[in-house]
Amino acid sequence: MSGFGALPDPATLLGHDEAVAAFEAILDGGASDDHIAAFLIALSDRGETMVEIAAAAQAMRDRMIPINAPANAIDVCGTGGDGHHTLNVSTAVAIVVAACEVPVAKHGNRAASSKSGAADTLEALGLDMERAGAMAEAQLADLGICFLFAANHHPAMKRIQPIRKQIGQRTIFNLMGPLANPARVSRQLIGIARPAYVAVYAEALHQLGTDHSRVISGDEGLDELSLAGGNEVAVITREGVRMQRSTAADAGLPSHPITAIRGGDAHANAAALRALLQGDHGAYRDAVLYNAAEALVVAGAAETLIDGVENAAEAIDKGLANALLNCWIAYK
């Protein structure tokens, strides 16, 4: 018996059918825990390909519990794991973009490597996560925003979680969250913490199919657009993938070091997010405006980053984003 049992040896690149079969076996219990662990470690050490990422995502999509969503809904989501422990930028962006009348189906989880994930911070703000999960479809239809707690929609991952914990290192499943949104959105802004992997990840998303999405990564390994320096950006449409570079100056914003948006625990991050929505200025606001602008361009709600920043700033300054958060928390 090989060290991978029913799974193929990742020493060689997997073809589409072979990769699909492997991830079906992993998610459906067709391989042992030890073989899954060995396979995932070997795949990570070798470096996952576009074919393998797309196959894993498709296997997860085929097994998820979906929800209905407006045709123009988007997701703003990062893979996490960048190690910078920043404030919750994508969570704030989701609220601001939804306040700009773009429906946002926010897919997320609790913190894995950071001090506070999206779910942790929203809960500290007062959002009842159990109710939000049960009423996600209704909230998206009524308010234009919902939180799709990953554990509620990906039951096949329940068996994999202990294996991932035991491994204790990044695996292909760290890349899966944004590619398996239960609302089946066709427009996304996805942050990944590996700039060199943006093109590979973007090609996988293109293979899976998307109307208009962007994969972004700050040069420092940030899983969102960074104000500190340059950013890798992949623009994905039905036609293909186009790579470009972006800086804060492209959005008419100043640069800030990453340390200026360093976060804390869930309560600290929640307080910062609430202050932001109530009008606080500074690096956190600029980071949110930058990423929200990119999301609004993806959604077709802004022509340029400059326009997107204006729209996002207006949603904050008029109190629309703060009011939306209040309505979301109070929703019954």
UniProtKB/TrEMBL annotation:
<dbReference type="GO" id="GO:0005829">
    <property type="term" value="C:cytosol"/>
</dbReference>
<dbReference type="InterPro" id="IPR000312">
    <property type="entry name" value="Glycosyl_Trfase_fam3"/>
</dbReference>
<keyword id="KW-0057">Aromatic amino acid biosynthesis</keyword>
<comment type="function">
    <text>Catalyzes the transfer of the phosphoribosyl group of 5-phosphorylribose-1-pyrophosphate (PRPP) to anthranilate to yield N-(5'-phosphoribosyl)-anthranilate (PRA).</text>
</comment>
<feature type="binding site">
    <location>
        <position position="224"/>
    </location>
    <ligand>
        <name>Mg(2+) 1</name>
    </ligand>
</feature>
<feature type="binding site">
    <location>
        <begin position="88"/>
        <end position="91"/>
    </location>
    <ligand>
        <name>5-phospho-alpha-D-ribose 1-diphosphate</name>
    </ligand>
</feature>
<keyword id="KW-0479">Metal-binding</keyword>
<dbReference type="InterPro" id="IPR036320">
    <property type="entry name" value="Glycosyl_Trfase_fam3_N_dom_sf"/>
</dbReference>
<feature type="binding site">
    <location>
        <position position="224"/>
    </location>
    <ligand>
        <name>Mg(2+) 2</name>
    </ligand>
</feature>
<feature type="binding site">
    <location>
        <position position="109"/>
    </location>
    <ligand>
        <name>anthranilate 1</name>
    </ligand>
</feature>
<feature type="binding site">
    <location>
        <position position="86"/>
    </location>
    <ligand>
        <name>5-phospho-alpha-D-ribose 1-diphosphate</name>
    </ligand>
</feature>
<keyword id="KW-0822">Tryptophan biosynthesis</keyword>
<keyword id="KW-0028">Amino-acid biosynthesis</keyword>
<dbReference type="Pfam" id="PF02885">
    <property type="entry name" value="Glycos_trans_3N"/>
</dbReference>
<feature type="binding site">
    <location>
        <position position="223"/>
    </location>
    <ligand>
        <name>Mg(2+) 2</name>
    </ligand>
</feature>
<feature type="binding site">
    <location>
        <position position="164"/>
    </location>
    <ligand>
        <name>anthranilate 2</name>
    </ligand>
</feature>
<feature type="domain" description="Glycosyl transferase family 3">
    <location>
        <begin position="72"/>
        <end position="321"/>
    </location>
</feature>
<dbReference type="GO" id="GO:0004048">
    <property type="term" value="F:anthranilate phosphoribosyltransferase activity"/>
</dbReference>
<feature type="binding site">
    <location>
        <position position="118"/>
    </location>
    <ligand>
        <name>5-phospho-alpha-D-ribose 1-diphosphate</name>
    </ligand>
</feature>
<dbReference type="GO" id="GO:0000162">
    <property type="term" value="P:L-tryptophan biosynthetic process"/>
</dbReference>
<comment type="similarity">
    <text>In the C-terminal section; belongs to the anthranilate phosphoribosyltransferase family.</text>
</comment>
<feature type="binding site">
    <location>
        <position position="90"/>
    </location>
    <ligand>
        <name>Mg(2+) 1</name>
    </ligand>
</feature>
<dbReference type="InterPro" id="IPR005940">
    <property type="entry name" value="Anthranilate_Pribosyl_Tfrase"/>
</dbReference>
<dbReference type="GO" id="GO:0000287">
    <property type="term" value="F:magnesium ion binding"/>
</dbReference>
<feature type="binding site">
    <location>
        <begin position="106"/>
        <end position="114"/>
    </location>
    <ligand>
        <name>5-phospho-alpha-D-ribose 1-diphosphate</name>
    </ligand>
</feature>
<dbReference type="InterPro" id="IPR035902">
    <property type="entry name" value="Nuc_phospho_transferase"/>
</dbReference>
<dbReference type="InterPro" id="IPR017459">
    <property type="entry name" value="Glycosyl_Trfase_fam3_N_dom"/>
</dbReference>
<feature type="binding site">
    <location>
        <begin position="81"/>
        <end position="82"/>
    </location>
    <ligand>
        <name>5-phospho-alpha-D-ribose 1-diphosphate</name>
    </ligand>
</feature>
<feature type="binding site">
    <location>
        <position position="78"/>
    </location>
    <ligand>
        <name>5-phospho-alpha-D-ribose 1-diphosphate</name>
    </ligand>
</feature>
<keyword id="KW-0328">Glycosyltransferase</keyword>
<comment type="similarity">
    <text>Belongs to the anthranilate phosphoribosyltransferase family.</text>
</comment>
<comment type="subunit">
    <text>Homodimer.</text>
</comment>
<protein>
    <recommendedName>
        <fullName>Anthranilate phosphoribosyltransferase</fullName>
        <ecNumber>2.4.2.18</ecNumber>
    </recommendedName>
</protein>
<keyword id="KW-0808">Transferase</keyword>
<comment type="pathway">
    <text>Amino-acid biosynthesis; L-tryptophan biosynthesis; L-tryptophan from chorismate: step 2/5.</text>
</comment>
<feature type="binding site">
    <location>
        <position position="78"/>
    </location>
    <ligand>
        <name>anthranilate 1</name>
    </ligand>
</feature>
<dbReference type="Pfam" id="PF00591">
    <property type="entry name" value="Glycos_transf_3"/>
</dbReference>
<keyword id="KW-0460">Magnesium</keyword>
<feature type="domain" description="Glycosyl transferase family 3 N-terminal">
    <location>
        <begin position="14"/>
        <end position="63"/>
    </location>
</feature>
